Amino acid sequence: MRGDLQRLAEAMGVKLEWPREDEAILRCPQDAFREIAGELARRMTLSDFFATNSSGSKPHLTAIFQAPGEPAWLLVMVELSSPSFASVTPDIHAASWYEREIFEMHGVQPVGHPALGPLRLDQLPVPPAVGRGGGVGVDVLPSPSLPRPRPSVTGQGVFQLPLGPVRSGPQESAEFLFASGGEDIVEVDLRLGFKYRAVEVLAEGQPMDWALHLAERMAGTSSFANGLAFTLAAERALGVGVSAACDDTRVLLAELERLQSHFGTIGRLADTTGLLVASAQYGLLREEVLRACGGIAGHRYLRGVLRVGGMEMLPGPAARGQLQSQLKGWAVRATGLRRLLEQTATFIDRLDTTAVLQADYADEHNLVGPVGRASGVDRDVRRDHPYAAYPTVSLAVPTIADGDAEARFQIFAEEIAQSLSVMAQLLDQWPTSEGEGEGEGVELPVRAGSALGWVESPGGETLTWLELDDEGRVVRWRTRPGSVVNWHPYAHACGSGNNLTDYPVIEASFSLSVAEFDR
Amino acid sequence: MSRWIAKGLKGGIHTTRFPETVTTGEEGAPSTVRVRLQGLNPAVALAASSRCPTSAISTDGSETAGELRFDAGACVLCGRCSREFPSAFTQVRDPRVAVVSRDRLRATFSWDEEHELAPVSLQATAQLLQQATSRLFRHSLHIRHVDAGSCNGCESELQMLSSPYVDLQRLGIFFTPTPRHADVLLVTGVVTHSMTGPLLETYAAMPSPKLVIAAGACAISCGSFENSSLTNGPLDRLLAVDAYIPGCPPTPQALLHGLLLAVGRAGERYRAGQEEPDGA
């Protein structure tokens, strides 16, 4: 791949830099961007695309590509001399929402975008830029106003049924406008962005540990994954490494988070199909995992345990021993419940062929995480670009091509088994001499730097781009959690031959985070 | 289906005895933070305030005199103060941390010329809820929850209220999808601009008498997002709040205590500036 990229760069006459072994930067002129991006998309996957317009750096675009099966990330950077660029969406469908976000947040116009308009709510205040220190000097480009593109369904007897933003139970706020002829879902208009808090902007100009604190609090059920992506990016930017004990602890906690999240997901799926006992059993398991998190890390959602260059805590022998004995019980119960669910016709019938996402559709949208893997997208950064202690454990990545709610259930269930196996492997090979519960960390250099961080969160691949100034403060923090990608095909999946009564099943089977999307 | 029933019965009872009996630390995590007077001095106060990511610990910046302002309502349980200054800050593991007055979460500690800790200025005891209102809701309570801009942590813990460990329904408390049937509005999150309208409309649609509960640091004080220009919060700027449940997120039992406190079925325990009460 390395040679391949070098040849491509030379053919295009652009500069290729390798700041790190696995991270290349391609500096691309504004007018050549569309051609180069289209060329790259043929052999790589577009994983993120955003604009930066912070004080201390010139306005520029960054597109992040990854190569399947190659330990390499490619960042294409385009310095902007005018507030518009040729849209790449006609060539790369997955760029559509990223370009709308760039337009919405920075007023930079992707010319030729087939459905341009804001991504979140219509009246998002631009610019959303006020930092903790009382305002960041952002040079805002002129923002043309356009309405948010929305599906239009007409026909005899078609009506609109709104759901949200205030939901029926304790759920996150989002609005879904169903176009229906009675029972069928013809089309869904997704209205997200009610919870937009400008988390990334709040971090600008702030010290690293404060930005890490924000990363951890952006989304509750993936707190640790988002914090870890930030921490890894910061450590790469500063060129520091951590001890093996820290790496082991990070993976252990990341898998505990996946476990509680997936137990919650299957519990909700069982609840939406009316299986209250199953839902209660998964609720028990989830509460036990949350308590284990609290016992080990002092926080049920694992907040406040990460530190750039180390960990605030390492699990002591007692905590590890207790977890080891709990793992066995969880594995037995999770397997039993899964078998029982598979044999329950009322459960499987509701999930089978519900909200199908075809493999080619999933591929076109570059889907990530369990949702992608249930539609045949064989991608997992824990395996493809292993980080922390993942190189030391064996991990199988399950994929199914069916793309329906049942396939997603199977993926979640299989990932629970894999998580339990990864944790058991880690605890088995844990050096007995290590860790008495105290944290540890390396001395951090104070200097400028930038790097990419990546983590497989419970919802899928989470990418973080971090730029630090020479005082160690955040110039730009961009985070692209898995849910951001997986919301994109959601409306399509809802509308593919499903009824309104299927909707709770569909929502539970995707298990997407609104807070991660809104940010 | 019969196999599920057998499965459920075989599992036995897991439900906590809370609130009849309180097992401190049962949920494995702290509920909030308390100040320990004996370990407090101006230097520690200043150092702790520089480590606090929110406005939970603040000082006037003087190393020798001055005061420490502590606000458990802004505490997001990052753990830095109790880890780095254990003599001055300690984590509270008793889940009964909800209070009916915002002032109960605040305390000011000041030092005189000789660096001696002056008497703690605790806020005056707030009046209890109107007895008549709380008596109305003593038996059954219907909750309308609104996420006004949270991270989903609070929702996650609210969902755990229905798990067998807590089993909210055994106490006659239910979530309701419609504001028309609701007695209490339970709000999580910072109250973003976009959620302000839906929140106030939900409140208006509820019949009187009605109660409002702020759950979590975001609803109480905007927590980690206090500098975001996109919030109208904290909640008590918009609505009169009857109970505050600190935490980030509050644990299921803390949420339960807050609900019972709001309707007069449980008492207040927590004071920001007081030592651990007996038996806690």
Description:
- With 519 residues, chain A is of the alpha+beta class.
- Chain A is built from 18 helices and 16 strands.
- In chain A, β3 (45-52) and β4 form a beta hairpin.
- In chain A, α5 (208-216) runs antiparallel to α6, α7 runs antiparallel to α8 and α9 packs antiparallel against α14 (405-428).
- Mean pLDDT of chain A is 86; it is low at 125-142.
- By secondary structure, chain B is α/β, with parallel strands linked by helices.
- Chain B has helices spanning 2-11, 42-51, 80-84, 131-136, 153-160, 193-205, 217-221, 252-262, and strands at residues 32-35, 57-59, 66-71, 89-92, 106-111, 141-147, 173-175, 184-188, 211-215, 243-245.
- In chain B, strands 7-6-8-9-10 form a 5-stranded parallel β-sheet, with helices on both faces. Chain B has a 3-stranded antiparallel β-sheet with strand order 2-3-5, with helices on one face. Chain B has a two-stranded antiparallel sheet with strand order 1-4.
- The radius of gyration of chain B is 20 Å and the shape is globular.
- The termini of chain B are far apart.
- The interface between A and B is large, with 68 and 65 residues.
